[in-house]
Amino acid sequence: MELNANAFGRNAMKALLDKTLQEALGRTTGRFQAHRDAAAAAFPEFEATRERASRIKRDVLDHLDTYLARFIEEAEKRGAIVHVARDAVQAREIAARIARDEGITLAVKSKSMASEEVSFNEALQEAGVTVVESDLGEFIIQLAGEAPSHIIAPAVHKTREEISRLFERHLGEPRTDSIPELVGMARKHLRSKFLSAGMGVSGGNFLVADTGSVVLVTNEGNGRMGTVLPRVHLAVVGIEKVIPRMADLPTFLRLLPRSASGQTISSYVSIVTGTRRAGDPEGPERMHILLLDCGRSAILEGKYREILKCVRCAACLNSCPVYQSVGGHPYGWVYSGPIGAVLTPLLVGLPEAAALPDASTLCGACADVCPVKIPLPDFLLELRSDAREQGLKTPGEIAAMKGYAGVMKRAGLLEAIERIAGVLGQFFTKGKGIGGLPYPFSRWTERRDFPAPAAQPFRKQWKIRRGVTR
Amino acid sequence: MNERESLFRRLSAACGGHDGAAVKEPLSCGEPMEPEGDRVALFAKTFTAAGGVLLRGPVEKALSDLGEMLRAEGVTALFFPEDDAAARGIAEALVPFGPFNLTTGV
Hints:
Helices cover 51% and strands 10% of the residues of chain A. By secondary structure, chain A is of the alpha/beta class. In chain A, a hairpin with a 4-residue loop joins strand 5 (206-208) and strand 6. Chain B has 4 helices and 2 strands, in the order αααβαβ. In chain B, strands 1-2 form a two-stranded parallel ribbon. Chains A and B meet through helix 3, helix 4 and helix 13 of A and helix 1 of B.
């Protein structure tokens, strides 16, 4: 997927002006967030389970070499062929080689953010393979020629009208605004692909070390169908997805669906362990597992290693006021929202994505909802500091921050400014908002009024209320 | 050096406690979420609260009780999938407590 992260500001502005997108985002993220909050509140052990999950993931990071080695050993015992890719180039080469060696001409694919990192579909297409996305949202954006805009709801930015137009143009289906009819159209089209595909491609929510299993947590059934019907199954998974034991899986199954969409459990939990065995009625004859490093081992070495705990639930996206306002595309790469704002610079290099850590109000909502307790706001601040050290901030930004810090460190100066601003503000604006300011503050007032300074600074009001005379 | 060896070299260098702290041993296999007895009790409580009927005791008694309940409900036939040996075994074991016809629906 082409990287365009540093155009975040420009693309965010376009997104803010897109009324259709704004409606779609408001509806979807609001719903996901409300369901998530209700599900967490209804689960008395939610916080304890978060803590346990965080501890398990931290243990994995401390012993990733041990657990990954065990996973590979167990998976290979059960018939899987495990490949390792250092980077995106290797991953594409391996994927193309697997397709060629297995004689694949058609592949059905379920959602895999890791595969988006390495432009997997393009690699297979160059090898002469037709790749059909089978997740409904991914299918829609594949038809639209767009990138996913949300980790678990990739077509969240599309309205039903837009989807119907796509189905009319690409599938020859009649226009409708009925969601069940649209789903039926997609199911009809995809069913024939499932039945004729030589290879099913999946991601992996978890890799279980002690059994060599790939776990898929899905809602649509395409993940299960795509990994059971075709002759070959290829799972593309980041190395950090391993968990130590099957007994650890319930901890994450209690958190992931609740955090993602407020479900107690997803519609399907598929535990794929090796190839079809004698007596099995279904399952792939051949199974390949492509483990991606692609920058993860480098992250593991550094101060941001806890970002690798992520289970890709997208709870942080749904709770983020920035994501809620602009959606996923302005983030300019595979991952969006708070997780994208940290992970993208770490995977692609900070100079290529320096705009993203600034795409945050630092409200902390993401850290509150993260099921594995990743300190996202801390990482965002740290990345901003790294950007400063690497010379990625403009002189204007540096001067503005120095000025701000200079004032905020001096209580007396701050108070004096507040008093003067209060008097002038009341005189010039009569307490109403300020509609126009000179550059660079005009970038604020272009779209909204700047609040008028209070007649009395809060500090003074507080002292009066508390009876402290001055 | 192949890519797998190279990966594990990178991981071994990267793994470990931060700031030089000693790494604890991997968590032991035995950190169950709850003791098995508690899990069964929780299942029983939840299942019963949802209107389910839980049969306890030796298999023979459970089958006898189940047979009685099914007769009281007016059940006369038991269906099991043709390729499900376990379901066939349970259905056949219930026949003496019936009478029940057995069918695979084929």
